[in-house]
Amino acid sequence: MQDDDEEENGGGAISTFCTTWNSLITLFLFCWFIAGNVWVYSIYEPNYDPSTPLYCAKTLYLFTFWTVTLVYIIIGLIITAGCCVMVCMCVCGRGGLSSGISDDV
Fold first, then answer.
1. Could you report the per-residue pLDDT of 45-94, keeping only the tens digit for each?
2. CA 93 – CA 87 distance, rounded (Å)
3. Can you give the pTM of this predicted structure?
4. Would you list the domain boundaries of the chain?
């Protein structure tokens, strides 16, 4: 009977642990992404000359720069597509509702 109660409540302690663990990992990854943004964009156009004391490896920096930038591009595309879908749903939804209602009421 206790197993049934745990299944109804989402698995008990294991479920709570997994939810907490996933939340902590997500928070860490979000903070790491923000820190990466600061590190990458704060030195934009770094010095690629290895003979200077503060330089960046060009391939590594450009890979990181474009990876972070692509995340923002993908987020922008998802938001734009979501807005287009919402507009289409509103336009098609209103047309469908108004055509089903008669003026004879």
1. 899 999 998 899 999 999 999 999 999 999 999 999 999 999 999 988 86
2. 10
3. 0.66
4. 1-35, 43-100
